[in-house]
């Protein structure tokens, strides 16, 4: 595998409504979708659609949702041999997205406890170029037998818990611009990225929502790339899509500015769908879109 994603895997139900219902009110949804969710799982789907050989490590339940997860992963061509199946229910969310407020309300069943990775997971990780972790997967690295400099390169989707994270533990550290402001409250985004990158000797990228992304590395210095405008149905999972797309560019050895531009485009295009999975573009879709937006 080029990349192994480690962390949360869910099965989500998403409904799009014109407005949030009032108490005891029934609203007819414009769309209802069922899709894979979870930062690691969405990143894995993104990588696979961009032509990167991908595996996933995580825990799901021995239930209907878990079986649906496995079916969808197989359809995407993702190696699921590193998934542990437990008796606890598969994690999932019921999500209501409101057009009026351009926001969403989420009710979640928490992920089951992450079991010590199985033998297949350890082998997959040992042979990978990159391991991409979310906030749960980052705690599994010791059990997987790797650390920075000992095994594959490590990418961290710092969607949670980034404020005090030791960025030197990973090769690619990707929080949001807001999290960088908390980490370095007196610094500009450019200075904050440079400070973490220089001290950790790695690449640090900050997502900026619809404004795109920014990054710093010793080779490229500070880079800032604007986002793309699309007709947004939902931003659910867009950050997770960005992370997967960014790692795909790292595998392909692209420059930092090119990597950010392509990852921005993939994340934007994913917002055309209601759920986090369905509108993630393929590599062919991406190339066509970028050619039209040169």
How would you describe what is shown here?
With 294 residues, the chain is α/β, with parallel strands linked by helices. It has a single domain, classed as Ribokinase (UDP-N-acetylmuramoyl-L-alanine:D-glutamate ligase). 32% of the residues lie in helices and 26% in strands. The protein contains nine helices and 13 strands. The strands form two sheets. A nine-stranded mixed beta sheet has the order 5-4-1-8-9-10-11-12-13, sandwiched between helices. Helix 2 links the parallel strand 4 (54-61) and strand 5 (79-86). The two termini are 32 Å apart. The model has no long low-confidence stretch (mean pLDDT 94).
What distinguishing features does this structure have?
32% helix; nine-stranded mixed β-sheet; 294 residues; UDP-N-acetylmuramoyl-L-alanine:D-glutamate ligase; 26% strand; alpha/beta; 9 helices; globular
Spatial gap, N to C terminus: 32 Å
The strand line-up of the biggest sheet is 5-4-1-8-9-10-11-12-13
Basic shape = globular
The CATH homologous superfamily:
Ribokinase
Element pattern in H and E: EEEHEHEEEHEHEEHHEEEHHH
**Helix share, percent:** 25-40%
Uncertain runs: none
In percent, how much strand structure appears in the residues? Answer: 25-35%
Count all strands and give the number: 13
So what's the CATH class?
Alpha Beta
Number of domains: 1
Major sheet, described briefly? 9 strands, mixed
Mean of pLDDT:
94
How much is the radius of gyration in Å?
Answer: 18 Å
The CATH level-2 architecture is identified as 3-Layer(aba) Sandwich
Kindly identify the CATH topology. UDP-N-acetylmuramoyl-L-alanine:D-glutamate ligase
* Helical segment count: 9
Question: Structural class given helices, strands, pairing?
Answer: alpha/beta
